[in-house]
Amino acid sequence: MDQNSSEMLLPDVPFTQENFNGMPYRSLGSSGLRVSNIGLGTWKMGYPETGDGSRINEKTSFEIFDKAVELGVSFWDTANRYNNASGNSERIIGAWIKCNPSQRRNIIIATKLGGLMDGFTPNHCGLSRNNIIESVYACLERLHVDHIDLLYFHAYDPLTPVGESLLAVEDLIRQDLVRYFAVSNFTVDQLKAYQSFESKISLRSKIVAVQNQFDLLHGESEDFRGVREYAAQKGISFVAWSPLGRGLLTEKYLNLEKVRAGDRLFDEGTIGETKDFSLMEKIYQLAVLAHEWNMQLNQLVIAYMLSLPGMGPVIAASSGVRQLESNAAASSISLSRDQMNKIKERI
Predict the structure, then answer these.
(1) pTM value surpassing 0.70
(2) What is the mean pLDDT of residues 88-111?
């Protein structure tokens, strides 16, 4: 079209943006990186036919990824060891990226390394410079990307000097193979040890997030108590793994008679947890509140978590498009102080 002879029909593009496809975003820690309020956990996506232990095949995964972009759920969480250390969770994301290269810039990919992977020697695990760099190369190949947006250490390594691990990440950031750095399953003391090294040397590889277990039923794991509060004080986003209590904090388990093979708690042999009367009573009470306020149980839980100080994206997994849609709908729910207090009384 000739710009001089015809008027260009361009959209009115704003200078800044606070959401994507209607999904609100928030800062990741004290960094400039913005992430969707609702993320997508991909730990059970893979190739079940290979015996990798995954539950969601490629077809369904692709349907979920397509819908995630449509809903603005753009923070995708994975790890190299997911699904029996097969790498298949990363591979399935990579397969989708390969089919949808124009979407790469829209997606924030977070992956983790540290556990035994891609081999069986002592040098195929831990946070040595050697394993960090080799693991990142392998992750990039599986993901079909040229950089990792957010790299986590999957757990603390007591055998490797903190400086060796952090300087390896620093080099990866300088090469633009990694953009941001985070940790997972760290205690307060372990976070302090890393930050102490950060303060001595000017590093790009500062911790922007910590991913630990947390849900409304159990709180933080006993060995990791206090991390959420410490992270909030230090400007580090707290990202909860298993935020819906392995599925307990969803509508599915309100009627235990409907639980059968194929449901996560049944298949994992942990359905016995539902025999804990006090635990189930909390769930039922929270569900009553949710229904009173015209929302589903998972939506109440997600909205509550998003309101907590220092909370990062809520990375609930989804086994299908409907579940993803339900989780995403919680992204904009604003709970009143009275509602927050009523929830606190029941947990």
Answers:
(1) yes
(2) 98
